[in-house]
Design brief:
The chain is 25% helix and 31% strand. The protein is an alpha+beta fold.
Length: 679
């Protein structure tokens, strides 16, 4: 029986990429698709070169067998371009299609793990996606696997939502490719396809075991003042401002290390560094680009402003591998960094074809990483020979590596140029361009606020994989799987205000037109400028059960709705989760439940038919740093936020979710620009 049949796009392996893939420099996927006729028969996905072959019941040209290990990503837009013939001056044809990928734990047809399937229409992509995903789910159920465990596995993503693939003896680690090995440290590169899809510079990653406990390694990393005396022709770091114990503003210089180092201006970045420690003992340090880097570079003179975003994690050993209880004698330190050299080296520019951004920052990044490792090693000994600073050991690259890098940059620059060409230009009549030119408008008293944000950017989500406190949590500390939320997501709006604006509920149209309904409204106030606000409204599925019943959930809700701000801060809890997003974003956000009122300022407003929570993200340096990292990549991120009240006694347990908000690759350019009349 045939479940689905239609024409699809396929990205076949290309000869050039196959050569590069053998040395771990590129995935074996072409950027220009070919059209094939596809049919899904049960758990077999068949491809034919021609529809007639399928109608004549001939043998398929390719067959992929779905199994329990398959992972299916969400549908995403994909831009591609091609030229007619081999003339390099020929005009490109720009096209866009809708895709999703299916991945296997073992290599399939064409010796690959991942199959990307494309369609001209989004509705066709969604239909095929849902059918294939349903087939995989049925295979899992038939095989007797725990469905909740499967969904937990399917939520583990590497950058841009590509499922994690683990194999022995393969240079590919998920969507990261090993490109160098320097002094015992391996350097990985993010998949070019993932980076270009996000229109970002591909990231670099270093990960290595440190023979020291996490606290010692963290102290060595965070002690930036010890680097201030280090200045050489290679790199320079200094602390511009020590805001508090959790926050620093850093000046870092990155000289060019290639043959043109005597004429190439040095790059400077101004970054804000913040840190936190998660409940599992992992230290997370975030570096986000400071918005005043251009003015700062101009004031310094002779320096070109660059952009840098990075994350450092220092993870302890699992309990089973520790020599002593509650003490990890080793830790795993991982650094992921995305660097944009600026100047003439914007993504897609001609100089980027010849010169890699790696020539500015990669060696300095490796040197710094190795110096941390060596400092940690020397701390174990009675006598230390010297005080280690940032090393200046340059590593020669082979001619083959340089040639391969040049080929890779030529192809990737062509693709990224296409991606940049899709951005709205001056005079463009696209919706996003028009939205940015609109001035701030005042809302109508009669109609109320409604940004009409496309529902494709937001939805509720399943509670699968989430855990909350059980009935006997205070005794056994056991958490239980969360049940479905008690509130439905009514609507999500996206606004841009001239300045931070609180208490928007009275102006919302649904509050005005539904005086008999109760709304739980959450406003996420993004630090600006520009000052964006995401306003999500929830309504109870059953108002009696949610607000008036004699149940743990209803009692907590009444206490929250009618309580004081201090009581609300003790109750309100958020469980975040990145469904799709880069490693940087995942580590920045984390997934640890948090009593948010203890970390940032929350303004509460109670009306006759609503309660509003305004999250002042700018009030916390760590939260603002996280949002800066995430907001720069909102078009590639899918994030879940589960809201609940924390139970502190057996009468208030078990916990139950209020609601779940999912933001799906949100385009901030779609925000409605509003000037409140009270402003």
């Amino acid at each position: 029986m045939v479940n689905m049949e239609s024409f699809v796009y396929r990205w076949p392996p290309s000869t050039a990429r196959s050569v590069l893939s053998t040395v771990g420099l590129s995935p074996k996927i072409s950027t220009v698709p070919v059209e094939r006729f596809a049919a899904l028969r049960g758990h077999k996905l068949e491809y034919y070169h021609y529809e007639e072959s399928f109608r004549n019941e001939e043998a398929p040209d390719r067959v992929w067998k779905l199994d329990q290990s398959c992972k299916v990503t969400e549908v995403f837009p994909y831009n591609y371009g091609k030229k007619d013939g081999w003339n390099p001056m020929a005009e490109k044809t720009h096209s866009m299609c809708w895709c999703f990928t299916v991945s296997w734990s073992k290599k399939q047809t064409d010796n690959t793990h991942v199959l990307q399937i494309g369609f001209e229409r989004e509705v066709d992509a969604i239909a095929w996606h849902d059918t294939i995903k349903g087939m995989v789910d049925r295979l899992v159920e038939a095989g007797g696997l725990n469905s909740s465990m499967l969904k937990k596995v399917n939520r583990e993503y590497t950058p841009q939502g590509t499922p994690r693939l683990e194999q022995d003896g393969d240079e590919e680690v998920g969507t990261w490719y090993a490109i160098k090995h320097i002094n015992g440290v391996r350097v990985f590169m993010e998949s070019e396809d993932d980076a270009l899809r996000a229109k970002e510079e591909s990231a670099r990653m270093i990960s290595c075991v440190m023979r020291g406990d996490p606290q010692t390694v963290f102290d060595s990393v965070w002690n930036f003042e010890s680097y201030s005396h280090v200045k050489s022709n290679l790199s320079f770091l200094k602390v511009v401002k020590k805001v508090d114990e959790h926050r620093r503003v850093l000046h870092v210089q990155f000289p060019y290390r290639g043959m043109l180092r005597h004429v190439m201006p040095t790059r400077v970045v101004l970054v804000e560094a913040t840190w936190r420690q998660d409940c599992d003992g992992t230290f997370v340090i975030l570096f986000s680009n400071h918005h005043q880097v251009a003015q700062y570079a101009k004031a310094q003179g002779g320096l070109v402003p660059a952009k840098m975003n990075a994350a450092v994690t220092i993870a302890p050993l699992k309990p089973d591998f520790r020599l002593k209880n509650n003490y990890s004698h080793e830790c795993l330190m991982t650094v992921v960094m995305r660097f944009e050299p600026g100047g003439w080296f914007e993504t897609g520019s001609i100089p980027r074809i010849i010169i890699s951004a790696d020539s500015f920052f990669l060696q300095s990044m490796v040197d710094w990483f190795i110096s941390i490792r060596e400092r940690t090693e020397q701390e174990r000994f009675v006598s230390k020979p010297l005080r280690l600073a940032v090393t200046s050991v340059a590593v020669e690259e082979t001619a083959g590596y340089k040639a391969a890098e040049l080929v890779k940059r030529v192809t990737s620059t062509a693709i990224s140029t296409l991606a940049l060409s899709q951005r709205p230009k001056a005079g463009d009549d696209s919706d996003s361009a028009v939205g940015r030119r609109e001035s701030f408008v005042e809302p109508s008293d009669s109609e109320g606020l409604n940004s009409r944000l496309d529902p494709k950017y937001w939805s509720s989500a399943s509670a699968d994989g989430l855990k909350v406190r059980g009935k006997k949590y205070l005794e056994d500390r056991a958490k239980i799987p969360a049940e479905d939320p008690m509130f439905d997501l009514h609507r999500v709006d996206l606004f841009e205000f001239p300045h931070p604006t609180e208490h928007v509920a009275p102006s919302m149209d649904y509050v005005k037109t539904n005086p008999d309904k109760f709304f739980y409204i959450v406003q996420l106030m993004v630090p600006g400028p520009p000052h964006y606000s995401v306003v999500a409204a929830f309504e109870p599925k059953d108002e009696e059960a949610s607000l008036k019943a004699d149940s743990p959930f209803a009692r907590l809700m009444r206490q929250f709705v009618d309580g004081t701000d201090e009581e609300r801060n003790e109750l309100f809890k958020l469980i975040p989760g990145i469904v799709e997003g880069s490693w940087l974003v995942q580590k920045a956000v984390g997934n640890t439940p948090a009593i948010l009122g203890k970390k940032i300022r929350i303004a509460y407003h109670r009306g006759s038919n609503y309660v509003e929570l305004d999250f002042d993200i700018a009030s916390s340096a760590m939260a603002a740093n996280i949002v800066r990292l995430v907001s720069g990549a909102t078009k590639t991120v899918v994030v879940d936020m589960a809201f609940l009240n924390e139970g502190h006694s057996e009468e208030e347990l078990p916990e139950q979710l209020i609601g779940i908000l999912r933001l799906k690759k949100l385009n901030l350019g779609m925000a409605q620009r509003i000037h409140m009349k009270s402003d």
